[in-house]
Amino acid sequence: MFEALAFYLFAGLLLFSAAVVITARNPVHGVLFLILAFFNAAGLFVLIGAEFLAFILLIVYVGAVAVLFLFVVMMLDIDFADLRSGVRRHALIGGGVGALLLAELVFMLVGREFVPGESLSVTPPGALTNTEALGRVLYTEYAFPFQLAGLILLVAMVGAITLTLRRRDDVRRQDIAAQHARRREDVVEIQKVTPGTGV
Questions:
Q1: What whole-number distance in Å separates Cα of residue 16 and Cα of residue 21?
Q2: 149 exposed, middle or buried (CB, 10 Å; 0-12, 13-18, 19+)?
Q3: CATH topology of domain 1-78
Q4: What are phi and psi of 55, to 5 degrees?
Q5: Nearest residue to 49 (alpha-carbon basis) of 125, 117, 138
Q6: Alpha-carbon distance 47 to 53, whole Å?
Q7: C-beta neighbour count of 2 within 10 angstroms
């Protein structure tokens, strides 16, 4: 009974927040409701025993992606009224794509065969938890591909920093080699000043 109530609560809040994300006039409110949608989706993952996916959703999407969206929306001066002006022109195409996706979801749910009496929980009593089983497989059988993926991400990060690093001509930078190569004769000039005449 508790699982059913929690499911309907999370699912209802998820649908409500997802609807507000696409209908909110204020983009900041849309991002905040997107964060609420992520929280409710994480709750649904916990209910089916996929706690690893739930924590990844909270850490990565809520902690990084949604907060980044919020900062970008708050910092950039975007004219959202101008962006919404072209919605009516593309409403027919968007509605067709949305109807197609809805039909696919309906066909998937109608054609699915449910086994009577079988629970949705993927973790039987006494077995390894989802996170522990995933960790054992990831750090034993797939340890090398996991390290390789980390190396690829590191190279991509360094490449992105290198591509976006621009050298500005109006900024004075320190050149240590030029400083060491200077001679006293090049930078110091001794002038003999006659008293009372000035320089």
A1: 9
A2: exposed
A3: Four Helix Bundle (Hemerythrin (Met), subunit A) (1.20.120)
A4: -70, -35
A5: 125
A6: 11
A7: 7
> Dihedrals φ, ψ of 52, to 5°?
-65, -45
CA 166 – CA 163 distance, rounded (Å): 8
d(Cα 58, Cα 50) in Å, to the nearest integer?
13
CA distances from 182 to 75, 85, 178, 191 (A): 46, 62, 6, 20
pLDDT at position 149 is 92
Residue 117 has pLDDT above 60, yes or no: no
Residue 34 neighbours by CB distance under 10 Å: 22
Structure tokens at 8: 């309907």
* Residue (of 59, 42, 61, 63) closest to 51 by Cα position: 42
| Average pLDDT of the chain to the nearest whole number | 81
Please identify which residue in the block is written with the tokens 């340890």.
143
How far is C-alpha 126 from the geometric centre of its chain's CA atoms?
Answer: 35
Residue 26 φ then ψ, to 5°: -90, 120
